[in-house]
Amino acid sequence: MKILITGGNNAKALKLMKAFPSHFVLLADYGDVPAIVTENYAFTTLGLLNKDSIAHILLNFCITESIDCIIPLYHYEVEPLAKSAVLFNEYGIQVLLPDADILDNYITEKSNYANFAVIINGVCIYSSADINPQNNLTQLNGVYGFDEINDDLKLFTL
User: pTM (2 decimals)?
Assistant: First the structure.
């Protein structure tokens, strides 16, 4: 599986690579990006940032690069991609975000969390710490940050 993580120039994106040890991860960002390619991951550019057509830019990139799954980390990518998830799915690209109708429940101003978890179709495939079993994960897709004190799951964004 080929996974695209946006915000590739940020340490948060590098942390996420731990969750996908057996997949190829493409760390992408806007503007200048170091040209590094290894067996398990690579860095690449998404070109110039244009927030007005972000979903189109990312869909085109995903199709061109044969991406199977996209994890958007920038806050300005989240809503356009959640609303376009059906279109991405038609091209066989999974958008790792909650459905657009419940998205607001998982957006927050805070961006620094002690822990994060990757949840796909309601199943936690990776977590940097134990998640409270009372959290209802059934409808969730995405990467969520949480603290051990406050176990409230929020999107892991930049």
Answer: 0.90
Contact (CB, 8 A) for 98 and 82? yes
The DSSP element (H or E) to which 39 belongs, if any, is none
Question: Measured between alpha carbons, how far is 36 from 111 in angstroms, rounded to an integer?
Answer: 27
Tracing tokens 């176990």 back to the chain, one arrives at 151
Instruction: Dihedral sign for Cα 68, 12, 19, 95, please.
Output: negative
Pairing of strands 41-45, 24-29: parallel
Q: Which domains does the chain have, with CATH numbers?
A: 2-97 (3.40.50.20), 104-155 (no CATH)
What is the CA angle 144-148-149, rounded to 5? Answer: 120
Q: How far apart are CA 9 and CA 144, in angstroms?
A: 19
pLDDT of residue 114: 80
